[in-house]
Amino acid sequence: MRWLGLVVLLLSACAQTVPLPEGYRMNRYKAPVPNHVPGGRVLTVAQAKELHEKGSALFIDVIGSGSLLTEGIDGEWLRVRPRHSIPNSLWLPDVGRGALTPAQELYFSKSLKAITGDNKQKSLVFFCLKSCWMSWNAVKRAAHLGYENLYWFSQGSDGWGAGGHLLSEIAAYPRKATQ
């Protein structure tokens, strides 16, 4: 029985020692993640649910678009497949990638400014899927933009749903709202 306890201790130590990149995670976004993020606080499913119920934070899904979205007329997104996520979340596709194009950087910064009313004290919860580095990157990027009340929900929409909480279809935040 002692060896079982030792194995559990070693496994938890390994989970906590995921090395942090010097900058952003640049590839293999779906991989083991660290237990902390510079500039943000980590949330459990219960803590995320509590913040969501209080309505005291904006939930921002940063899952990549992949083949889900294409840019349409007048800067709007054309949805190819639905995205099911935490209800009332804002979806800022692809802003959690390691290297953003200038257009993506502008979309991210202008979107945050618009949805917070230019209030850098507003509480923001970033997430995507369980064990996804995109949300880790987004928290770090938002901290560099000067946002101060940042949360990382590393369990993402997967953890939310597995916790028995409702997922609903959300739309990508419009690009033209930031132009």
From TrEMBL:
It comes from the Bacteria. Pfam families: Rhodanese. The keyword Ribonucleoprotein does not apply. Keywords: Transferase. PROSITE patterns: RHODANESE_3 (PS50206). Residues 117-169 form the Rhodanese domain. InterPro entries: PQQ_CXXCW, Rhodanese-like_dom, Rhodanese-like_dom_sf. One of its GO terms (molecular function) is transferase activity. Coiled coil: none annotated. NCBIfam families: PQQ_CXXCW (TIGR03865). This is Rhodanese-related sulfurtransferase.
